[in-house]
Recover the amino acids of this structure.
């Protein structure tokens, strides 16, 4: 405001408020999505690793490697390797589609869509009234993401 005029301030504030609204809406929708997944979590499946000893818990705290059975190298033929790769690819395809469906609430949140609508409406309102200063608008948009990044790097 010291170095520029009130139109510069208007551009930065329209972009900043819409960017802030989008960020808060994204956080809230993804938090709701994660809380829903936690509420539906079946703990009986995750309790099967109760017989793990302390060394195993230290080496593999999240129990990532007990699901897979080790295949001896003698049994690994090219056909067996292709079979394993196809099996893993099918799991990834199923899981990616499943994750997309379950996370749809995060990226299709009404608040987030409303935030993007405010951003687009503000941009066109400034542009139609011949008040748009693109550099000021970009500066206003960049404050929230850059501030978030810097706060994460600081921690």
């Amino acid at each position: 405001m010291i170095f520029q005029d009130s139109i510069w301030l208007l551009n930065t504030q329209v972009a900043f408020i819409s960017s802030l609204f989008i960020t808060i809406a994204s956080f809230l929708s993804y938090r709701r999505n994660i809380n829903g997944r936690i509420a539906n979590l079946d703990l009986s499946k995750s309790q099967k690793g109760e017989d793990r000893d302390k060394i195993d818990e230290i080496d593999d705290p999240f129990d990532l490697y007990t699901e897979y059975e080790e295949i001896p190298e003698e049994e690994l033929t090219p056909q067996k390797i292709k079979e394993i790769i196809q099996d893993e690819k099918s799991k990834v395809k199923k899981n990616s589609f499943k994750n997309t469906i379950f996370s749809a609430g995060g990226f299709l949140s009404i608040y987030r869509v409303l935030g993007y609508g405010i951003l687009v409406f503000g941009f066109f309102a400034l542009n139609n009234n011949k008040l748009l200063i693109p550099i000021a608008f970009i500066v206003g948009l960049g404050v929230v993401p850059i501030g978030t990044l810097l706060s994460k790097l600081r921690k």
About this structure: The mean pLDDT is 80.
